[in-house]
Amino acid sequence: MTATTPDPRSIAQAVAYEVADEESQVGEFLGRHELEDNVSDFRFAADILGYEGWQWSITLYHDVERDMWTVNESSLVPGDDSLMPPKWIPWKDRLLPTDLAVTDTLGTEKDDPRLEDGLDARRLEEDLDRAGSKTGETGDREDDGGLNGADSGDGVRNGASDDTADADDNTSGKDSSVEGDAVAGDEKALRDELAQTADIAKEFELSRRRVLTPLGRAQAAQRWYAGPHGPKSLSTKTADGMPCETCGFFVPLKGELNLLFGVCANKWSPDDGRVVSRDHGCGEHSEIEPPQPSSLWIQSKPAFDDLHIDIVRQAPREERGEVEAEESAGEPRFDDAGHYLGVLAGDVVLFHSQMPERGERDNDDDDE
Q: Domain residues for 269?
């Protein structure tokens, strides 16, 4: 788009009307900013819902020789007080350790600043063996040099009578001996240093492929100390001033982290199997004695009250008097001659003729 009009502001405003969905979305003119190479940036307020403080940016190029203005670019840009979304953060930086489940796998990058290469145990042993062999060769050379020097000295003394020759031979022998002692001392120091490094690598298991860097150890220490197993936890208040470092169940860590941390080994502690700080504490300290039982026996309420009987009102029985009389009657009575005297039911004597027949009683039971 080109124009020969000398008013670039009108051109920029026309472009803003064209790129906006509605002309009402283009607000008042905010200003003009001169850029490099005859390029000017014209700003208009953006009256768009949800874009508070945003601006229309229309850049025009001015051809001075032809006195023409050309549209370069049009866009919607934020201002100083614009409503902006939160700054975008990569997902791996937004992720927290608590977001991972036990079945999730995040992996470790090769250039993780928390890790560095460990010591090569095989190479360290080879260097140690090589230093030892060099030390042995140096000792052999020293012994050979001393014997040769003595033999030559004897030959000179036996074959010549010049005192000056004897003095020169003695001086050269001393110089070579001093130089040999210095070399042997350096090699011995190197061997001792390698042996010490090997012992440290074995004790702290530094022969792994990668080990923690000072940054990794510092981050872990800060995270553990400020966490729920540090000195500011609620359980520390129940320790009666007895920190973990004085507890018999406290297992100190190795290395630099030993200064602050250890592992709890008390199965009754809420921190069992976890890294705790030395000034952490809980109510299961090994020096806290259990409470003494009281001599006063206090009766507590039973879970089930089996000391009382609950009286429940029952519905009246709907049975005939004959059945009740039969149920309340005693055993049949007979006289000495074996005559049947009936059944005594209270103050009444019942005979067979007054008792309901068995079939009738069964039918009555079935009807009920």
A: 214-277
Instruction: Give which of 119, 93, 111, 115 is closest to 216, Cα–Cα.
Output: 115
Q: What is the CATH number of the domain that holds 40?
A: 3.10.450
pLDDT in tens, 71-84: 999 999 998 888 88
pLDDT in tens, 172-181: 555 556 565 6
CB 346 within 8 A of CB 328: yes
Please list, in sequence order, all residues whose beta carbon lies within 8 angstroms of the beta carbon of residue 31, skipping any fewer than 6 positions away: 42, 43
The first and second tokens of residue 280, run together, are 């952490």
309-330 pLDDT, tens digit each: 777 776 666 656 566 666 666 6
121, HSE (Cβ side, Cα atoms, 13 Å): 12
- Residues in contact with 176: Cβ distance below 8 Å, sequence separation at least 6, in sequence order: 145, 149
Residue where a domain terminates, one of 149, 183, 203? 203
Q: How far apart are CA 248 and CA 269, in angstroms?
A: 12
